[in-house]
Design brief:
With 297 residues, this protein is of the alpha+beta class. Helices cover 39% and strands 23% of the residues.
C-alpha cells in the first residue's frame, strides 16, 4: 500500500479504474514503461535515473576501499543502501527525516530491502574488501518507489562494477545476474501489474516481488486490505511479476550495453589513472619486512 506521502502525491488526480484495465489505459499485465538513464551523475562511480510512469528515482553508487568491522580481514566486500523521498516528491511538502532527527520505519524497511535485493546477485568474495554505497532518492512519487529504486540501483551498481573492471582493479565481475522488482495487486478482483497511485490506493491486495534474472525469489511482500486472497491469486500475481521483471531485465541489459562500450573505449586511460593510486594496504604489509631487513644488516 502507498505511504501517506505517496497518497498525497496524486490525491487530487485520482482517476477511475475500469475492471481489468489500468487507470492510464494499460492492459492489466502491462507494466509502466521503465526508462533507465545510466551514468546520469558525473561524480558517482555508478548512477541511473529510473523513471516508471510519473515515479522518478535517482540512484547513485559510491565506492570505498574499506568494509564494516565485522568483515575486516575477511577478503569479502559489502553493499549497503539508503533511501529517501525529497520534500516535494509528493503533492505537498514533507519535512526531511534528517531534520526530524529520526528515520521512519518505512524508510528503514525499504533501504534494507534494496540492500538485500542487490546483495542477492553480488558475489561479495569477488568484490574484495570494498563497500558499495547505494543511495536511492525519490524525486517524484506515484507508487512503486521501492521497486523502481531496485530496478535503477541494479544498473547503477553494474556501472560501478564495469568501472572497476575497466581500471583493472577487478579482473572478474562479482555480479552473477540481474535483479528486478515490480508491484502486482488485485483491484476489483483483477490482477494488475505495476500499480500507479490510482490503483494502489484502492487495491484489495498489494504485493511487491523481487526476482533475479534466473527466476529466483529474493523477496515477496503481500498485504490484503478488506478481504483475504487465495493461493491461486498469489500464483497468478507471481506469474505476472515474473513476466514483467523478465522484461525489465532486458531493458537493464540494453541500458548497460552503451555504458560498457564507453568504458572499453576509455580503458587505457582508466588503467593509467588506477596505476597512480597508492596501495595503502600493500604498504602496510611491507613495513614488517623492511624492519627485518634492517636487523639483518
Amino acid at each position: 500500500m502507498p505511504s501517506g506521502n505517496e497518497k498525497k502525491a496524486k490525491g487530487s488526480r485520482v482517476s477511475k479504474v475500469r475492471q481489468g484495465v489500468h487507470s492510464d489505459g494499460r492492459s492489466a499485465s502491462t507494466p509502466r514503461t521503465l526508462e533507465l538513464d545510466v551514468g546520469y551523475l558525473t561524480h558517482a562511480e555508478g548512477s541511473a535515473l529510473a523513471i516508471a510512469g510519473e515515479t522518478r528515482v535517482l540512484c547513485a553508487v559510491s565506492l570505498e576501499d574499506r568494509v564494516p568491522d565485522f568483515l575486516r580481514g575477511s577478503g569479502r566486500g559489502w553493499l549497503t543502501a539508503e533511501y529517501a523521498m525529497l520534500p516535494r516528491s509528493t503533492h505537498t511538502r514533507s519535512q526531511r527525516e534528517a531534520n526530524k532527527g529520526k528515520i521512519k520505519g518505512r524508510t528503514h524497511e525499504i533501504q534494507r530491502l534494496i540492500g538485500r535485493s542487490l546483495r542477492a546477485v553480488l558475489d561479495l568474495d569477488k568484490l574484495g574488501e570494498r563497500t558499495l554505497y547505494v543511495d536511492c532518492d525519490v524525486l517524484q512519487a506515484d507508487g512503486g518507489t521501492r521497486t523502481t529504486s531496485i530496478n535503477g540501483a541494479y544498473v547503477a551498481v553494474a556501472q560501478a562494477i564495469e568501472t572497476l573492471l575497466a581500471s583493472g582493479e577487478l579482473t572478474e565481475s562479482p555480479l552473477r545476474e540481474p535483479v528486478g522488482a515490480v508491484s502486482v495487486g488485485l483491484v476489483d478482483g483483477a490482477v494488475l501489474v505495476d500499480l500507479a497511485y490510482a490503483e494502489d490506493s484502492r487495491a484489495e491486495v498489494d504485493a511487491n516481488f523481487v526476482m533475479t534474472g534466473s527466476g529466483g525469489l529474493v523477496e515477496v511482500q503481500g498485504t490484503a486490505e478488506g478481504r483475504t486472497f487465495e493461493r491461486d491469486d498469489l500464483n497468478k500475481m507471481l506469474d505476472a511479476a515474473w513476466e514483467a521483471i523478465s522484461g525489465y531485465n532486458v531493458l537493464q541489459e540494453r541500458a548497460l550495453e552503451s555504458v560498457g562500450k564507453k568504458l572499453k573505449a576509455a580503458k587505457p586511460a582508466l588503467k593509467k589513472a588506477s596505476a597512480k593510486k597508492p596501495a595503502a594496504n600493500k604498504t602496510a604489509r611491507k613495513k614488517p619486512a623492511a624492519k627485518k631487513a634492517r636487523k639483518k644488516k
